[in-house]
Design goal:
Strand 14 and strand 15 (about 570-575) form a beta hairpin. With about 800 residues, this protein is an alpha+beta fold. It contains 31 helices and 25 strands. It folds into three domains: about 5-270, no CATH class; about 305-525, no CATH class; about 535-695, no CATH class. The strands form eight sheets. Strands 19, 21, 22, 23, 24 and 25 form a six-stranded antiparallel β-sheet that branches.
Length: about 800
Amino acid sequence: MVKKYSFKEFLTENVELINSDDSTSNAKIDRLTIPMIQRDYAQGRKAHSGKNGQLILNSTGQKFINEVFSTIIHDAPDKQLELDFVYGSIITEKEEKNGSTTDVTYFNPLDGQQRLTTLFLMYWFIGGVELNKDERNALSSILKNFYYKTRTSSTVFCNKLVNELNSSNIDFLLRTDAIFEDNKELTTRVDIVTQIENLSWFHDAYKLDPTVQAMLNMLEEIQRQYLKRECKNVFANLERLKFYILPLSNFDLTEDLYVKMNARGKQLTNFENFKADFQHWIKSNIVKFDLNDQEYDGRIMPYDMFFINKIDNEWSQCFWNAQKDSEDKNFDPLFMSFVYKYLLNEYILNSSGTNKGLDKESDFILLSDEVDYSGFSLFERNLTKDSLENLLTLLDQISAHYDDIIEVSQPCWADSSAKFDVLKSKLTLQERTVFCALIMYLIKKNFDKTALKTWLHVVWNIVENADIDSWSVATGVIQLIMELVEHSDDIYGLLADYSSIINSSQSKETIAEERKKAKLIRNNPDWADVLLQAESHPFFKGSVSFLIPNDNSINGFIHNFEMAKLLFDANGVSPKYQSDSHILLRALLSKYNSLTDIKYHITDRKEKENSLKKMLAFDPVVRAAFAEWLSLPTEADIYNKLLEEIAKESPIPVGVNDFDKKLHQLLYKTTDLVDWMQQHRAIRYKDNYISRPSSSYDWIYVYGYSNEIITELIARGWSCENTCNIGEGPNKKDIPYYWSAAGREIDVSKSICYDGNTVLQRCSVGSEEITLTVGDTIIEALNYNELVTDGSGVKNFVDDIEKKYNDITRGGI
């Protein structure tokens, strides 16, 4: 007759095992271990009831615990509950302890995990209630050999729970006068789960572990039933709960078998597979990487276990805290995303050559896209001993200083509603670059809140003004940051020392500004606060060198900033200086001595390319203009100066290029043109055309006296329609420019002029000739070189055009 065993007997006696050939053998089980590949504990899961939707214990778990209690409270001493077979494998391994080696026998259940876990909780709770101190100590020695390895947090939780049997932290002395309402729900001040959650070692990360959460649910139900049934002295009756042991030593216990056996339950997540693979990779490289055993929670353990313990405990707690404002907290994908980002940085930093084409490499794409986990090969290719140890250092630093890191890593102009968080799953390209700067500091330097704040302040200034709109630019800035990070604990010291060499060619103008500001601060610390105030402006965002006066005086800087705040807001030029026909922009355009010097988009609003900011930071004409204007005593003085600028004649010399001079004056004197440009975002000037940025069509051609000719035609009653019709209302004839297509002469399909009901298609108007057509008849080319000097003869020229037109329409040709 094959013997049956209770949970306690299984862990204390030599047990009789049924072998695959029906023979029997005996073994002493030292440890009962739920392996990593097993699913989570499920009998304690809660489900919504069908009646009112409240959460109650799932039906399988409820049925089992009801049967258990019915058995242990039964009066008949021979009453038993047979729990069927427990299948599993028996493994004997060598274990070193106190300098000696012993054999340890493990039983890994393949089927029976759920029942065994519930029995473990029954023994713990009822033993805690009914046993004296010495008996509890004996029980804890037995229960400590029950191991959960599905997650390290489950292992630690069970171990901590068993230790509480030897402490006085939990009040197991239950009230016997518990009150039950009609719905049979327990109403009592004794709450075992609340007591556990209030223990000093219990942290919120345990709530992320579904096994731990299910254990707490089951303990809640065990307590409820114990009180409801008014149990007394039933601990000994737990020995009535019996099962058989069936070892599967002769079977191949592969992961596939575990998955198939657990197909009815929750499958392993990508993160669980990743974590298991990660631990296996670390374990397989312990000798190669010379990874020594580490102490964790007072125990010495192999490096792989130490690392996984970190993931499942303090690191998971940190990632949990990072989601404190989220309704759907989930540690696993957040941690996976962090590892992808970390390894992508490693990939960039370890790449050889330039950053060109780096983002087209396969591993770069896989890491940056954070592809769904399908195996460890991607990680294995990009992990080294250094990157592993650096990841450990990094996550320890973040876990220890998370709140301080969040505080100092915001840009000074940050909107409080959108914080930069190193643990966020989705980051912009700009934020990814700052992410790199932050994590490399935490890896390379001892944590110093002030130094980190200064370092990231400089980094944000560089990143914000680097036009990071592609991975190619981002990787270039990251490589610059990697050159600077060696000095990140005293970045101002490096920048203020003009003899120090920065080899990267990336963001040279921004680096020059940061050097200048660092030098000012080192010479006079009072500069730090005034610079910070200006850098915090929501439009300037760190780029404020145009405010620094020539004499480098703080008072002069403060005055310039006060004036600048009147001229600029978060969206660019302030409304007052936009609504008045864009007076500030026109005044800026008037300062140029050559059209070819206008290298940026003609705009006074914030845009993707931040062209106006570029002009303030790098354009010598604009910087000289603001140095002059901002130094004026009052805003009224500045406004009057702007009026003078837009009223003056173009500084382009007469006789050098009369067409350019005329066009220049159109750009800053003609309010209709500038208004139309800003309203339609047609703000790019190049080669006498104006268009929208990145557009390849719909260009406005604003060159020379051909505009004068069209204006004269319109003044005589001609008008335009469709794309040619740019003006509004009765002043259409006052618009001295016309429509063109993508850099070509006028396209007949784009521009149609008419006189009354008679249609005249204008085929082309160039700097040397004008060609008109009606139907198939072409008016001969008319040379108007005589117009290029002062515009005289436009009236006669148009007279000639009209005469040709009239001859055609009357059949005179």
